[in-house]
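Why should sequence recovery work at all? Because a backbone constrains its sequence more than one might expect. Tight turns favour small or flexible residues, buried strands favour hydrophobic ones, and helices have their own preferences. The token representation captures these environments compactly. In the example below, the structure is given first.
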């Protein structure tokens, strides 16, 4: 590997930027490629797929076989609300490879005793989410039931590239939430990104069961599985 390419990969990793290294197995030529919203050729399309699936692959091109090695930034989960459901959700998400951050200005809730080893931000959710610059490797879940906190997080989340947005609350609560967001100027395409009520419909009751349902839905969204 050429030093220039290695230096670029190291920089992209430090910047938490998704990147792939495409190596032609016939010529040995290497090129650094990034996700493309409008792929110009088959290789760029295959790079998009490899990055989305988070898995290396070998593809056939007109110039011969090309090996695509994936260097994705860590998955992140931003949780607005240091409530009881956030405790098992944070632990489960960490076990599945997410960097978890709890955002809650209520310092009595967001404590190291309740969330050992988890990054805590005592910011207002809109500022906290914005400061973390959510990208396509970021999931955002709101859990407070308080519109002042949840809606603040959603305003920022809906203007980001986050791959998953979920909100705790009943169907009635969610309908009211959507109406507030419409009044704030968000269109139906934006609102369709929100999973609400959050989680798969598995009959979850306890905080741990609800956390399982949320993480399952989040995983299905990330991996392209069917969700309901």
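From this structural description, the recovered sequence reads:
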């Amino acid at each position: 590997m050429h030093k220039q390419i290695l230096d670029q990969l190291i920089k992209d990793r430090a910047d938490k930027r998704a990147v792939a290294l495409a190596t032609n197995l016939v010529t040995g030529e290497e090129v650094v490629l990034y996700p493309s919203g409008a792929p110009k050729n088959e290789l760029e399309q295959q790079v998009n797929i490899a990055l989305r699936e988070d898995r290396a692959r070998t593809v056939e091109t007109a110039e011969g076989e090309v090996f695509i090695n994936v260097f994705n930034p860590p998955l992140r989960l931003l949780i607005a609300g240091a409530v009881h459901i956030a405790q098992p959700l944070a632990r489960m998400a960490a076990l599945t490879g997410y960097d978890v951050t709890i955002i809650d200005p209520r310092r009595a809730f967001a404590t190291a005793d309740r969330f050992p080893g988890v990054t805590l931000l005592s910011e207002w959710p809109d500022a906290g989410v914005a400061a973390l610059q959510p990208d396509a490797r970021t999931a955002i879940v709101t859990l407070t039931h308080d519109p002042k906190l949840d809606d603040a997080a959603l305003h920022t989340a809906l203007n980001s590239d986050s791959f998953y947005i979920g909100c705790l609350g009943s169907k009635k609560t969610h309908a009211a939430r959507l109406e507030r967001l419409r009044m704030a100027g968000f269109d139906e395409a934006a609102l369709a990104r929100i999973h609400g009520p959050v989680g798969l419909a598995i009959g979850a009751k306890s905080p741990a069961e609800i956390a399982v349902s949320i993480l399952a839905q989040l995983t299905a969204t990330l991996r392209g599985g069917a969700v309901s």
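A few observations help interpret the result. The first strand starts at residue 19 and ends at 24.
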